[in-house]
Design goal:
Layout: H1 6-29, H2 32-58, H3 73-102, H4 111-139, H5 144-150, H6 154-182, H7 187-216, H8 222-233, E1 238-243, E2 246-250, E3 253-262, H9 268-285, E4 289-296
Parallel strand pairs: 3-4
Antiparallel strand pairs: 1-3, 2-3
Helix pairs in contact: 1-2, 1-4, 2-3, 2-6, 2-7, 3-7, 4-6, 6-7
Domain Cation efflux protein transmembrane: 10-216
Subcellular location: Membrane
InterPro entries: Cation_efflux (IPR002524), Cation_efflux_CTD_sf (IPR036837), Cation_efflux_TM (IPR058533), Cation_efflux_TMD_sf (IPR027469), SLC30A9 (IPR040177)
């Protein structure tokens, strides 16, 4: 099921506005946690732009330089996004937190921090609900974490976890500002910034792992492959499917190789007529499979 770009556009609009207001509030109040949150939102804004670039480039048609298409552009840019969350978002948050602990500065009036955090929470919450609905639409009845691990479309789960980390970061920033002001202890603000860095680091590592797996090439699910093999082996012309390696080239595009042991009674002409028929049947039943290579083989003999 194709993903919608709505969660990305929603997150882009929310993060762009929120980043500006957070930096304004940070400049007025001097809050380290607010600076970290502003950087967090700015990085998220850049991330959404990169994901949109990845989606656009992944739709480019195949050419002489990329005969299998540009589908993996999306996986590449999703991986870059995960690195940015870690390198810029997490790194700067750690730096701001440690700097604030070394040179603590009390927040005189947290009013604008509270206003900005409230607005940001409402906008990020709306963006999170939009991303969650899209992810739930895609996963159907699949358990949440199984769907995350099995998802082939990073544009959906990257935005979802970005928004989740946004909301957690806002809660931590609020606690840092509130406790620091109420207890007249600016160290809470610096600690909050470090915790925000830890949240971003954890999210970035998880996203990097999932994006790397997609970039390296993930197979279709074993269940789907078994259904394809069973369907092919039901053909009287086929004795057995010897091998069936596959790889996702894009969220909606699978490359499949089949090594088939055909019935010994078939002539070369029979096999040449059977192969296009098998290819057409697979595409009709499994539209995700865009490219299919079928190679005759003999059971018990090496295929390479």
């Amino acid at each position: 099921m194709a993903a919608s770009k709505l969660p990305i556009y929603s997150a882009l609009a929310a993060n762009l506005g929120i980043a500006a207001t957070k930096f304004i509030a940070a400049s007025v109040t001097g809050s380290s946690a607010m600076i970290s949150e502003g950087i967090h939102s700015l990085v998220d804004t850049l991330n959404e732009i990169l994901l949109l670039i990845g989606i656009k480039r992944s739709h480019k048609p195949a050419d002489a330089n990329r005969p299998f298409g540009y589908g993996k552009e999306l996986y590449f840019w999703a991986f870059i996004v995960s690195i940015l969350i870690f390198g810029i978002g997490g790194g700067v948050s750690f730096y701001e937190g440690i700097t604030h602990l070394q040179h603590p500065k009390s927040i005189e009036d947290p009013y604008w921090n509270y206003v900005v955090l409230g607005i940001a929470f409402a906008l990020d919450g709306t963006s999170f609900v939009t991303a969650l609905r899209e992810f739930n639409r895609q996963r159907g009845t699949t358990p949440f974490w199984s769907a995350v691990k099995g998802s082939k479309d990073p544009s959906t789960f990257v935005v979802l976890f970005e928004d989740a980390s946004d909301l957690l970061g806002l809660i931590v920033a609020f606690l840092g500002v509130f406790l620091g002001h109420q207890l007249n202890n600016p160290l809470f603000d610096g600690i909050a910034s470090i915790i925000i860095g830890l949240i971003l680091t954890a999210v970035s590592l998880m996203l990097a792992r999932e994006s790397r797996s997609l970039l390296m090439g993930e197979s279709m699910s074993q269940e789907t492959l078994e259904r394809i093999v069973t369907m092919i082996e039901a053909d009287p012309a086929v004795s057995a499917v010897l091998e069936s390696p596959s790889m996702y080239m894009a969220p909606e595009e699978v490359f499949l190789i089949l090594v088939i042991d055909f019935n010994d009674r078939l002539t070369i002409d029979d096999i040449n007529r059977t192969i296009p028929a098998i290819r057409q049947t697979i595409r009709q039943q499994f539209p995700l499979v865009k490219r299919i290579i079928i190679e005759p083989g003999v059971a018990g003999q090496p295929t390479v």
